[in-house]
Amino acid sequence: MPATPRILVLTAGASRRLGQPKALVDLPGGAPVVRLVQAALEASAASGNAEAPLVVTGCHHVEIRAALAAGLGQGFVEGLMVHNTAWEAGRTGGLALAASLAPGRDLCILPVDHPRIGARLLLELFGEWRRRGAPERGWLAPGFGEVPGSEAGLRPGHPIVIGAKLAAELQELTADQPLRDLRRRADPLWMLPTQDPAVLENLDRPGDLEQIRRADRGH
Questions:
Q1: Using CA atoms in the order 136, 139, 141, 147, what is the torsion angle rounded to 10 degrees?
Q2: 19 — alpha (psi -120 to 50), left (phi > 0) or beta?
Q3: What is the rounded CA–CA span in Å between residue 138 and residue 7?
Q4: C-alpha separations of 195 from 29, 115, 143, 162 in Å
Q5: What pLDDT is attached to residue 76?
C-alpha cells in the first residue's frame, strides 16, 4: 500500500488584502493554522501514519510558531516548521523548500486559505489516491458539485495531492510561478467529487472571513 502523502500546510504570505495574518484569525473553530495541523495529524494517524505535517511559514513565522506551540506544545512544534525566509519571492518557493525536505514522497498541499478543511476530506482524498494507484506524476483535487457522486460540472478546489515525481519538479519552477504551471505537467489529472463547500472557500479579504465565520457557526 502506498504511503500516506506528506501534508504541507502553506501559511507564508503577508495577508495584506485581509489586513491580518490569515493563519491566526479568530474563527469559532479555532485559528486556521492550528485546526489545519490538527486535521492533518488526525488524518495521517487514521491512515496508519504518525507523521506530522510540515508548516511552511514566511512573513508571520514568529506569531504562527507561537500559536502552534500554545495549541500543540513547544516540543512538538519544533519538527513542524519550515521557515521560508524568501517568502516575498513567491509561494511556490516555499512549497519547493518544503518538498525538498520530503524527497521521494507524494504530497498533499493544504493552503491556510481553506481553514475549514477537516480530517474527513483528507482521508477521502488519501483513499482515492491509493485506489487509483498513487501515480508518480498524478494530480488529484476535490471537485465541488451539487449532485452527490457526479463528476458533471465539478469546480476544482483544495487541498490537492500530487505524485512524487511531479513534486520533485517543483525545484524546476521559479518562486513566483503559479502552481497551475506544475498542474500542466501532471498526468493523469483527476477530481474527487465532494459536496463539502470548504474546498472552495478562500480566506483572502475581510468579506471572505465573515462568510467563513458564518459557515463555522452553521448559518
A1: -100
A2: left
A3: 16
A4: 20, 16, 8, 21
A5: 76
The residue whose grid cell reads 468579506 is 207
Pairing verdict, β 107-111 and 189-194: unpaired
Helix (H, G, I), strand (E, B) or coil at 190: strand
Instruction: Provide the 10 A C-beta neighbour count for residue 104.
Output: 10
∠ CA(118), CA(124), CA(126), 5° rounding?
100
In this prediction, residue 219 carries a pLDDT of 54
pLDDT tens string for the chain (219 positions)? 457 899 999 999 999 999 999 999 999 989 999 999 999 999 999 988 878 899 999 999 999 999 999 988 877 787 889 999 999 999 999 999 999 999 999 999 999 999 999 999 999 999 999 999 999 999 999 999 877 666 778 999 999 999 999 999 999 999 999 999 999 999 999 999 999 999 999 999 999 999 999 999 985
Choose among 101, 87, 111: nearest CA to 208: 111
User: In the beta sheet, which residues pair with residue 192?
Assistant: 142
Q: Helix or strand or coil: residue 38? A: helix
H/E element, 183: helix 180-183
**C-alpha cell, 17:** 488584502
Dist CA 219 CA 211 (whole Å): 9
Burial of 139 (0-12, 13-18, 19+ CB in 10 A): buried
The three three-digit cell numbers of residue 167, written as one number: 513534486
CATH T-level topology, domain 6-217:
Spore Coat Polysaccharide Biosynthesis Protein SpsA; Chain A (3.90.550)
The set of cell numbers assigned to 189 is 489529472
